[in-house]
Amino acid sequence: MSEQEKADQPETIEYSTRRTVIRSILVACGMFAFGFAMVPLYNVFCQVTGLNGKTDPDPYLYKAAEAKVDTNRDIKVQFVATKNAGMSWDFAPSTPQVTVHPGEPGILKFVARNPTDKKMVGQAIPSVTPFEATNFLHKVECFCFTTQTLEPGEEKVMPLRIIVDQELPKHIKKLTLSYTLFDVTHMN
């Protein structure tokens, strides 16, 4: 290797190292920005796809329509109760399924029991399937609107009042309303 080649080599290595460091910093900044963008991107994704029942910006607001019951249609509404990891309550619907006519109120109850020896706070998060039906199942009264506090050994009957909208597409005959119960004691 000539003297000139030896003199040029450290500059090439220095330039290559500098370029790698700059690229690494840009990638790290991009990853950091992507982390902040994940929540709004997830909300948009859920709104577009209906995932987790997030298609309506006001999902709990019942849009008033002429109060009439469509007795020509029967809609089966199934109820599913699950617990998130770490939630030790017993949690179940009083009945696994009801049949309602669109426009007719459906009234039922969920039961929660705290079998632990400590006071706990729970929050239920609803989800509706099929996703297409999300905007047509209205929860008029729901335990999911607020957190639920149970003392040790306490059992609570929690009301749920729903209305299936008369505008529900005709091909939908069965809906599933599922709730996942989370332990939010540490947040209160």
From TrEMBL:
From the record, give the transmembrane residue ranges.
21-42
Q: Which Gene3D superfamilies did the record assign?
A: Ctag/Cox11 (2.60.370.10)
Provide the topology term for how it sits in the membrane: Single-pass membrane protein
Answer whether the UniProt record assigns the keyword Metal-binding to this protein: no
* Top-level taxon of the source organism: Eukaryota
Q: Which GO terms describe its cellular component?
A: mitochondrial inner membrane
Which species does the entry assign this protein to?
Capitella teleta (Polychaete worm)
In terms of SUPFAM superfamilies, this protein maps to: Ctag/Cox11
Q: What is this protein called?
A: Cytochrome c oxidase assembly protein CtaG
Q: Which UniProt keywords apply?
A: Membrane, Transmembrane, Transmembrane helix
Principal place where this protein is found?
mitochondrion
- What molecular function does GO assign, one term? copper ion binding
Instruction: Give compartment(s).
Output: Mitochondrion inner membrane
